[in-house]
Amino acid sequence: MMDRESGLDQVPWFALRSIRSWALWKVRPLGLVFILTVELFAPVLTAVALSRDDLSATYLIRVGVLLAAAIAYGEACDRIERFRRFLGDGSVRTNHLSVWTVAAILVVPAGLAAALVMAIYAHVLLVGRRGRTLRPHRMLFTAAAATVATWAAAEGAEFVAGRVVPGVAAHSALPTVVALLLFLPLDALIVSTGAFLATRPARFRAVLPNREALGFEGATEVIGVVTAQLLLRTPWLLPVSFGFMVVLHRASLVKQLQLAACTDAKTALLNASAWRERASAAVASAAREGRRVAVMVIDLDYFKRVNDTHGHLVGDLVLREVGRTLKRETRASDLVGRFGGEEFVVLVDGRASVAHALDMATRIRERISTMDLPAQLRVTATIGLAHCVPASADGLDQVLEVADAALYGGKQAGRDRVHAAAV
């Protein structure tokens, strides 16, 4: 076997060995077909579009400037992007490259814009290989999706400029709006569809980009529009885009660091310390106002058997699915966390009635028992529910004790049930 430390595995001749080891080949057949189809379609589409484009010197210079800017920014902010990938939870998310993509959509023909995207992502792959911070098969699919979305958005802008409002430039107001409305949804749809077909979660919503990712992408698109205008009118001010992107990129990293500090890595719920801190504040507020609070402690029944029989990878998958279920069945104002192991906690918004809390607990128990899991696996949960007026501002432990006692009662009564207690 080739010595990994010898450096021979870095030689291009040995690249096939690395490709054969990609996790891509283990995804579901339908997902694999979709991913490979998109990856093959993107370069063919780009080549056909380039054969029809006006490859004038002006357009080539614009592409060269944008490519140089993208490479320079990628090298300068490589460390920030490594942190962002390290802190990622594996979900579909967008990235900072849209600033150059959107600018290209507005200032060069569709084929050149698509070719620029492929060149930018080729540099990203090289940087990622150098730092070993990304999975090549994922980045290839992301690049292909962005290429297709870029071509479609550029064609849409050119169509509006040429036929809907003849005589206007592709970077004018209406074509720009059309391009933005096409690029982000199409890009997200292609990537999310690939992720869904490859992993088949219970709901398509589970693979969609979250609000933070969409907000970041939207901001980069706005900067992309500004970049296009600067390139067309005052190219010497193009470095201004760098300043905007650095501020946005660093702000995004700070946000991710804050989320990572209070988030459980396996389930993306609040971790125990973050949940206790926020729940303590909610209980203190309820105690001052004389309001009742509802807390449920959720324990997966016989979870150790899952790990012993199916392995810890399946056990982790179950925990993630439980986390998604809890997010779906609770409201944004409820506090949901993982206390450790197979135990979860929910503090229901203090304005909820006893009946509402009991209905929520029952619904959660039913959803957990019907989760879509591999190998005909079925998992159940016992839930202890406490609903009371806290005796003092530091009464969280009292409420948890009541909920824990209710949980114990539910397990004694046969498990897979909701057991409520009130004080």
UniProtKB/TrEMBL annotation:
Keywords per UniProt: Membrane, Transmembrane, Transmembrane helix
Spans through the membrane: 30-50, 96-127, 139-157, 177-198
PANTHER family for this protein: DIGUANYLATE CYCLASE DGCM-RELATED, REGULATORY COMPONENTS OF SENSORY TRANSDUCTION SYSTEM
InterPro entries: Diguanylate_Cyclase, GGDEF_dom, Nucleotide_cyclase, Rev_trsase/Diguanyl_cyclase
Protein source organism: Jatrophihabitans cynanchi
Protein's name according to its UniProt entry: GGDEF domain-containing protein
Record-annotated GGDEF domain positions: 291-423
Record-linked CDD domains: GGDEF
UniProt KW DNA damage keyword: no
